[in-house]
Amino acid sequence: MSQWVSLRTELRTGDLLLMIKWMSNEHVYRYLNEHQQIATQLKQVYDARLPVFTPLFNRNGRFL
Q1: Which strand (E) or helix (H) includes residue 15?
Q2: Is 31 helix (H, G, I), strand (E, B) or coil?
Q3: What is the pLDDT of residues 2-59, one digit of tens each?
Q4: What is the predicted pLDDT for the residue at 45?
Q5: 15 and 53 in contact (C-beta within 8 Å)?
Q6: How far apart are CA 61 and CA 64, in angstroms?
Q7: pTM to 2 decimals?
Q8: 13 phi and psi, to 5 degrees?
Q9: Closest by alpha carbon to 23, among 4, 6, 46, 1?
Q10: What does the pLDDT read at residue 21?
């Protein structure tokens, strides 16, 4: 199974769900600069049901 990763200017619902899946995996988040509760926090953001999540992630000058 192969999957492609690409960069886009907008972070949408499907992207956020994929991030939640990745950040729920210890082998992924342990090598990033994130804490163990990141998947829980991303789920809370998802519950906001916004059409585009980019503004939430770019508030502090972050790039995803």
Answers
A1: helix 13-23
A2: coil
A3: 677 777 777 888 888 988 998 898 888 778 877 778 889 889 888 888 777 777 777 7
A4: 85
A5: yes
A6: 10
A7: 0.69
A8: -55, -45
A9: 46
A10: 93
State the first-to-last Cα distance of the chain, in angstroms, to the nearest integer: 24
Q: Which amino acid is at 36?
A: Q
CA atoms within 13 A on the CB side of 5: 4
Alpha-carbon gap, residue 20 to 41, rounded angstroms: 9
Amino acid at 14: G
The answer to whether 34 and 23 are in contact (CB under 8 A) is: yes
Which of the 8 DSSP states describes residue 35? -
Identify the pLDDT of residue 63.
53
